[in-house]
Amino acid sequence: MPDTHWMKQRAEELTPQLVAWRRHLHMHPEPSMKEHNTAAFVVERLRDMGIDEIEEGIGETGVVAHVRGEGDRCVALRADMDALELTEQTGAEYASTVEGMMHACGHDAHTTCLLGAAAILSEMGDSLSGIVKLIFQPGEEGEAGALRMIEDGCLEDPAPEAIVAAHVQPDLQQGTVGLTRGFVTAQSDSIEIAILGESSHAARPHQGADAISLAAQAVTALQHFVARCTDPIHRKVVTLGTIRGGTRRNILADRVEISGTVRTYERETRDAIIDFLGNRLRTLVGELGGRMEVTISEGYPSLWNEDWVLDHAGDAARELLGDEGVVDMQYPSMGSEDFAFFQHVGEIPAAMLRLGTRDESSGFVHAVHTTHFDLNDEVVLPVGAAIYANTAVKLLQR
Question: Can you give the residue range of the structural domain that contains 281?
Fold first, then answer.
């Protein structure tokens, strides 16, 4: 079997191709569940590598491919493909050519790293100890593309023993990999609240019910409940991102609409917040003369990095980067990721790694989901490709 030195060398040799692939994807971003050209690009690259066991249209626009070695054991690697509705302001020569769309979360890099891993693994032939299932997933940004692919059979024939994903991390130095023990991403639920009052003249507020005042009370009560009535050791954050209401400065608003998210790890605290929103807060608004309607949409579940999967990924990373290239990350993220569905619904041991992208000397310091996010693809991509490939090898050899 080719050794780690060969794998690292191949990733470095592939760098010009990886950079070209990523920049093509970056220039042509597509929204969630509409990644038709991206999927076609992936399929064409896989076929160029000699990989012919490819399924298209899984979960609408997803792609699944198999790299077969010797044996029937199977592990999976996943990358997401969709972009975000943002107008890029990086000024890069390879900036998005699509108005109002950009790869602001690094999914172009994730896809490219997985293509690079596919190229490396496909060259291993029978020295590969089993099957690597490559999952190119649509719709991570709010459309639960992972769930759609699972429902469409992406984890069948064969079923993988474990699955690994990687995600860019702008506060982690480029060329390094971050490992988080235990929880790594949070559950995210969406909330929509309507506070209903009754209009009246601003000079006669007692003849109506001021929905804006009621909304202020509701917002304060909700944040008080989170801060003072849930376990302070539990990790949680409730963010109310929009509030809309009122028609004139001298008319009491009869309706205010609020939207936000609830992000949690511990189920007990999540259930307590949801119960407060649906019951006690509704009662409070009613006592003050209004009514409240609330819609709670359960979002992506939290992700727990399975110890043995993470251990093998960590071993793979240390072989390639040395101890100094692997960072033990102390805290999880309150962000959410639909990769968690592979663990919760697919019931497969999973782990997500972090690919460092920070390079202050070159200005690669901006957070994901911002109009200035970018990365040094000549450094990040070969690391990601090699880590993906070596992790699959380690998992198959366990």
Answer: 188-297
Report the number of distinct structural domains present in the chain: 2
pLDDT at 1: 64
Boundary (domain end) residue, out of 297, 313, 333:
297
Please list the alpha-helical segments (H only) found in 14-85. 15-27, 36-48
Q: Is the pLDDT of residue 173 over 80?
A: yes
Question: In what side-by-side order are the strands of the sheet with 236-245?
Answer: 236-245, 255-264, 187-196, 291-297
The neighbour count for residue 158, using CB atoms within 10 Å, is: 16
Cβ atoms 232, 174 nearer than 8 A: no
Q: Please check whether residues 202 and 157 belong to one and the same domain.
A: no
Residues 313 and 350 placed together within one structural domain of the fold: yes
Q: Are residues 32 and 156 in the same domain?
A: yes
Do residue 12 and residue 101 come from a single domain? yes
In this structure, the answer to whether residues 196 and 164 fall within a common structural domain is no
Structure confidence at residue 332 as a pLDDT band (50, 70, 90)? very high
Written as six digits, the tokens of 142 are: 């709010």
Is 382 in the same domain as 267?
A: no
Which residue in 119, 92, 94, 98 sits closest to 34, CA to CA? 98
Give me the helix-helix angle, 15-27 and 4-13, nearest 10°: 50
> Average of pLDDT values for 11-17?
98
Read off the pTM. 0.94
One-character DSSP codes across 271-322: HHHHHIIIIIHHHHHHHTT-EEEEEEE--PPPEEE-HHHHHHHHHHHHHHH-
* CA–CA gap between residue 307 and residue 320 (Å, rounded): 20
Tokens at residue 109, please? 């890099």
